[in-house]
Amino acid sequence: MADLNPAQLAAVEAGDGPQLILAGAGSGKTRTIIHRIGHLISARGVAPHRILAVTFTNKAAAELKSRLSELIGDDGGGVVSGTFHAISLRLLRRYAEALAYPRSFQVIDADDQKALVKRILKQANIPADRLHPSFLLGWIEHCKHAGQTAEQAPACDWNGVDLRGLYSTYQQQLREHERMDFSDLILNCVLLMREHADIAEALQRRFDHILVDEYQDTNPVQHEWLTLLCAGHRNLTVVGDDDQSIYGWRGADIRHILEFERIWSGAGTHRLEENYRSTGAILDLANAVISKNEDRHDKSLRATQEQGLLPQWQVCNDEYDEARQIGTQLQAWRDAGYAWQEMAVLYRSNRQSLALEQILREQGLPYRIVGGVGFFERLEIKDALAYWALLNGCGDALQLMRICNRPKRGIGLKGQEQLAAQLSGSGLRAHEWLDLVAEGGVGGVAGKLAPLARLIASLRPQAGTLPDRGLMALLQESGYLDSLQAMGELEAASRIDNIHTLQRYIELTMEQEITPIEFMDRAALLQSGEEAGRDDENEESVTLMSLHRAKGLEFDCVVLPGVEEGLLPHQRALDDGEAGIAEERRLLYVGITRARRHLKLTTARVRRLFGETHYPLPSRFIKNLPPSMLQQDTPVATASAMQNNSGDMGVGSNVLHPSFGEGVIIDFEGSGDAIRVTVQFRKAGIKRLMLKYAALQAA
DNA sequence: GACCGCTATATTTTT
DNA sequence: TATAGCGGTC
After folding, report:
1. Where does the UvrD-like helicase C-terminal domain lie (predicted)?
2. Mind giving me the DSSP string for A544-559?
3. What is A71-87 written as a DSSP string?
4. pTM for this predicted structure
5. Strands A236-240, A19-23: parallel, antiparallel or unpaired by DSSP?
6. Angle between the A182-195 and A197-204 helix axes, to the nearest 10 degrees?
7. Strand C proximal to A373 Cβ, under 7 A
8. Nearest residue: Cα versus C1' of B11
């Protein structure tokens, strides 16, 4: 451990009791956790299986495991590590019955969850304009994040609708379908411990040490989860950075890390402030930006790398100009010897990728967009998994309903209702019921399922054996694969390709001799195809993704487009007042600190969003920075601009614009070439214009 | 049951 | 401005 710095070493060797490790961006956070775990095992004699390491993503959990094995060998494998959700699910599998759930319950995904809420609202005859499904779901999630069951949730009347009642209905329906949603995984674990002292005690005795990564992102129910689990020993080590708390909108409460020392009396605090990632110039900018936030642990990153080049700030004409400038910059970095995969463009809103995509394609630069529909959320993957689950004897009613008419079997909405009623009336599990159907033991519409049921019954002996040929045979012979062809050749090919990826993943995973339901758990908790064996990470291409997705990653060269008022900070965050702006500032901080060597920020003078034209001001976050921190690069605009003599105009002047018509200036800002005016147009409303480019005339 | 056209909607989305 | 999903109609 000779290569740890003093602060890291102190954190690694800190004794029992609560420990807070404030780890700035690029300060060797993961190394420190791993070494601390290693220290607990080798120096303190803690048994590996009595250590629990909690993360937020599967990727982080996997990295932890592999680096731990690297450091301490086989013992690393004994450490229990996983996401909050994965660990919770494992506990719930064992104790589900205490919550009146069958042990074979499944996890419901976001799509099915939304469909369920929609159905509930429809049944209750509540139209979307009175209560929007996503609003209801958001409210329920909010309650769950706060650790509130339907009974404990606050009474809430929305347009005469009782939200708490609907929350309760939603839970009932989930239970009837034998499903839990993602938030339930955590909340139900907490309920288990709240309501069953014996289980709580057993779980509290299970681990001697708990370590949590990305602690700034914990929400109240996760906090309670941790509090309950380590109630016996209080050996809780949390690692995080309050300056990187960007999930407040998902219920994360930054106070858990800000007030850690108050919440956990006697806590030790360790600050990791030496940054091994970025150049000094990049860190100077990061520090300058984040220091404007008020509620934060006082710390600042120190560079260990060379000072490097100043980050650049470029003002562009519009989003297409911005994209072109970015393309030029990326090419310049490439010419300087950087690989494409060492570059990233990180934006606030996914919509920003549109113009970038278009221009980068025109310029012939390789890029990949991260985001969008996750692998396991794809239609064909969900279908294939439903078939697989039914084949392997763990499918449920939702899965049967999903595939009963795919391919077309002549079962319409009415038929599906009938099937659902028959199935639930039988009291059988879906696959048992299907066997009954195969034998011709069910009448009515169910008859239309008989061929499928018989096919499944005939293939079932092949299920669970390796190599697993059952699924592909089922999809082929049931006509499912053929039904994909109806979507067009290209699309069908890509979907079938995805199914083959799934097939490989199934075989790979089943080698570990896990049960079908455990396999379904993994699929439910995984979201990307990367982990499923599709590896486009190493592709030779520039990465385009949202700032949120970029947390935890690093690149040699980073571009942050759209550093503007309205986008960063986002308009919608401004409504949340100071707290909203602080989180947006942290988002910019996260973006800046992703860069190792080169950083470029851009701003557009004109940005079209949803068909509306905006004239954004540069972000407040980069205003009033010392001029030595950013190299401003503002080329002469190419727009056909009319030169105005601003001397003729001022606040109150009447003006005329060729497309917006008559208006009056209500604000004036800037000087020289950078004058912005805010104009109240009589018909077009308030617009901000760059005087130099606006064809604005004194009227 | 399929198709077409209208309309609602657009911040971020670790699980 | 772009798109997905829904509802109406054939």
Report:
1. 280-552
2. EEEHHHHTT--EEEEE
3. HHTTHHHHSEEEEHHHH
4. 0.87
5. parallel
6. 100
7. no
8. A349
Residues 580-619/A with CB within 7 Å of nucleic chain B are 610-611
Q: What is the pLDDT of residues A476-514, one digit of tens each?
A: 998 898 888 877 777 788 888 889 989 988 988 888 888
Per the DSSP assignment, residues forming a β-bridge with A87 are none
Q: Is residue A632 among the annotated active site residues?
A: no
Q: Is A150 known to sit in a ligand binding site? A: no
User: Which residues in window 332-391 of A are less than 7 A from strand B by Cβ?
Assistant: 348-351, 371, 374
In this predicted structure, the answer to whether residue A613 has a pLDDT above a threshold of 70 is: yes
**What is the pLDDT, as a whole number, of residue A596?**
96
Integer Cα distance of A652 and A663 in angstroms: 10
Helix, strand, or coil (residue A678): strand
On strand C, nucleotides with any atom < 7 Å from a protein CB are: 1-2, 6
3-state SS class at A144: helix
Nucleotide nearest to A609 (CA to C1'): C1
Instruction: Establish whether the CB of A611 is closer than 7 Å to any nucleic acid atom in strand C.
Output: yes
DSSP code string of A572-638:
HHHTTHHHHHHHHHHHHHHHHTTEEEEEEEEEEEEEEETTEEE-PPBPGGGTT--TTS-EEE-PPP-
φ and ψ at residue A606, rounded to 5 degrees: -125, 130
Residues 6 or more apart in contact with residue A489 via CB below 8 angstroms: none
For the segment 225-284 of chain A, residues whose CB is within 7 A of strand B: 246-247, 249-250, 252
SS3 A527: coil
Render pLDDT for A42-77 as a digit per residue (tens, 0 to 9). 999 999 999 999 999 999 999 999 999 988 887 677
The answer to whether some atom of strand C lies closer than 7 Å to the beta carbon of A610 is: yes
**Two tokens at A42?**
């080798």
A533 labeled part of a ligand binding site: no
**CA A173 to CA A423: how far, in whole Å?**
15
Catalytic residue among A8, A29, A171, A583: A29
Q: CA gyration radius for chain A? A: 28
CA distances from A236 to A37, A52, A96, A628 (A): 12, 10, 26, 42
| Helices assigned H by DSSP within A205-315 | 220-229, 255-258, 260-263, 280-290
Mean pLDDT of A622-649: 59
Distance A115 CA to C7 C1' (A): 17
